[in-house]
Amino acid sequence: MSDEIDFFSMAQTLSCPNNPSKSDKKTSDTQENPINSESKSEHLDVEKAKEALQTPLMLELRTKAEHFIVETPGDANDALSMRDQAWTFAKQIEATRKEIVRPHLDFQKAVKQFADDLKGQFEQIAATVEQKMNDYLDGKQLPQKLENEDAAMKEVTETTFEVEDETLIPREFLKVDEKAIKAALKDGVRSIPGLKIVTEKKRKYRSKPKKKA
């Protein structure tokens, strides 16, 4: 038989039958957690990860960059290549990091998916019982508060809203849509009431595909 937890069997075990006795209304406080608390991921060796990420070229390149002086077009070209080399190493470091942590991310994702599914089943059980209570209490002249040794319930008044006409909403309750503004600027819009649009030049760098040795 599979070790996987049968959610429906568990829900049936934990649910209360009609007119249950007091001893049947709740599970034992010592009931074993359905999730194996001893389950652990593979040991994380930080030092081994550092060893995989470390490169002796970093100190050499940093020292070279700190003492490098750009005075001629040739120096500028050399600086461009040096910058590209540093960014290439940076991207390689990030790629290696992702490769190192990928198994653990997959583990976390699998555990979270399983836990979310299990949690959802219990939340659904709670919602089912809550709806039955609400159906019973609606329209009855009962106290606005119920309480026992397990839990408590009280009626509260909440104020919510629904948007009927956005054009009538006061300005202080509206938010600037930065994403829409950036899209408009990208499309060439240069005048928007209430905004100061600034155009400035920036230098953008990119790496070129490296020739295979």
Write a structural description.
The protein has helices spanning 7-14, 46-53, 57-67, 73-137, 178-186; strands at 145-147, 152-154. The chain has 213 residues and is mostly helical. It has a domain at 40-159. Strand 1 and strand 2 (152-154) form a beta hairpin.
List the helices and strands and how they pair.
Elements: H1 7-14, H2 46-53, H3 57-67, H4 73-137, E1 145-147, E2 152-154, H5 178-186
Antiparallel strand pairs: 1-2
Structure characteristics:
2 strands, 3% strand, 213 residues, mainly alpha, two-stranded antiparallel sheet, 5 helices
The largest beta-sheet arranges its strands as: 1-2
Element order: H for helix, E for strand: HHHHEEH
Mean pLDDT: 80
- Strand percentage, roughly? under 5%
Outline type: flat
The residue fraction in helices comes out at 40-55%
Low-pLDDT stretches: 1-42
In a few lines, what is going on in this structure?
The protein is an all-alpha fold and about 210 residues long. The protein has helices at about 5-15, 45-55, 55-65, 75-135, 180-185; strands at about 145, 150-155. It contains 5 helices and 2 strands; from the N terminus they run ααααββα.
